[in-house]
UniProtKB/TrEMBL annotation:
Its EC number is 2.1.1.199. One of its GO terms (molecular function) is methyltransferase activity. It holds the Pfam family Methyltransf_5. It is found in: Cytoplasm. It comes from Caldicellulosiruptor naganoensis. The lineage of its organism: Bacteria, Bacillati, Bacillota, Bacillota incertae sedis, Caldicellulosiruptorales. This is Ribosomal RNA small subunit methyltransferase H.
Length: 307
């Protein structure tokens, strides 16, 4: 059985739930760690809508929460929040939580192809009913696109070298496994001083591309805002700078009264302030949490409240 230790659990759920009778969304249900805690805070009148794009996680979750009436578990993308809520007859929510990235179920299960420590098919789909796999990206994308993805999504300075090597190798035979990709990267990129695997950044980049992760976040944040009640909160736990930047900029933009250029004497943009930022600085895990759960080390929680 796969277990996932929920990150920043107390902190995120305390910020999220302000009304025990309210309607909440766990946009990244995973193995239900945060959902369980949210349900503990809700009364019999409260409702939790839990979404995940991973059918395997949904099936495990449905079994885990069998008999619990105030949770609806839905297999969908969080960018389809509007469709999910409308289909349940919900037009307003009291709060939404995003715990981004992959779950331990995805990372630790060899055949999901997320881990550079395993030897499995290059899959990396969070939703195994979707089409594009890491194999397709690695074997079919142009050298230029590979370089761009690895540089932008992996923040990898050796992107050019890695892309070139991928294209060279795949001309001999397709690159099929996580091990082949890991070995290839290790053959052209020096090992960082901290001893970490140089393949880490490229694996992150390919995963982001396969799952369209950054566009998913942007769309879902916009849609969340439309459904939040006044006083309702958006809580986001991110795990790397690309995710965190999107959240930070989204909160900042929607917390501004006006976005007119500074030299215009009267406001013409018509923008309204929609959010109050609750966490001026992101909340990060304690030393104790990081010791217990290494995966939490890069986590950042940001919270904003609808006006
Ligand atoms: C870090 S895990 C969440 C773990 C969960 N909070 C727990 O305590 O068990 C992230 C989950 O979000 C899901 N996910 C990521 N992107 C998604 C998206 N765009 N739409 C729906 N689910 C998504 C993944 O499939 C994964 O199960």
């Amino acid at each position: 059985m796969y277990d996932h230790i929920p990150v920043l659990l107390e902190e995120s759920v305390s910020y999220l739930v302000t009304n025990p009778d309210g309607v909440y969304v766990d946009a990244t249900f995973g193995l239900g760690g945060h959902s369980k805690k949210i349900l503990e805070k809700l009364s019999d009148k409260g409702l939790l809508v839990a979404i995940d794009r991973d059918k395997e996680a949904i099936d495990i979750g449905k079994e885990k929460f069998k008999g619990c009436d105030n949770i609806k578990i839905v297999h969908s993308l969080f960018s389809r929040l509007d469709e999910v809520l409308t289909s349940l007859g919900i037009d307003k929510i009291d709060g939404i939580l995003f715990d981004l990235g992959v779950s331990s179920l995805q990372l630790d299960k060899e055949d999901r192809g997320f881990s550079y420590n395993s030897d499995s098919f290059l899959d990396m789909r969070m939703d195994r009913t979707s089409k594009l796999t890491a194999f397709d990206v690695i074997n079919k994308y142009s050298e230029k696109d590979l370089e761009r993805i690895i540089r932008e999504y992996g923040e990898e300075r050796y992107a050019k070298k890695i892309a070139k090597e991928i294209v060279k190798r795949r001309q001999q035979k397709p690159i099929v496994s996580t091990k082949e990709l890991n070995d290839l990267i290790n053959s052209v990129v020096p090992r960082p001083k901290d001893g970490s695997n140089p393949a880490k950044r490229t694996f992150q980049a390919i995963r982001i591309e396969v799952n369209g992760e950054l566009d998913e976040i942007k769309t879902a944040l916009e849609k969340s805002l439309r459904f939040l009640k006044s006083g309702g909160r958006i809580c986001v736990i991110s795990f790397h700078s690309l995710e965190d930047r999107i959240v930070k900029e989204f909160f900042k933009y929607h917390s501004l009264e006006c976005v007119c250029p500074k030299d215009i004497p009267v406001c013409v943009c018509g923008k309204k302030k929609e959010l109050n930022i609750i966490t001026k600085k992101p909340i990060t895990p304690t030393k104790e949490e990081i010791e217990k759960n290494k995966r939490s080390h890069s986590a950042k929680l940001r919270v904003a409240e609808k006006i």
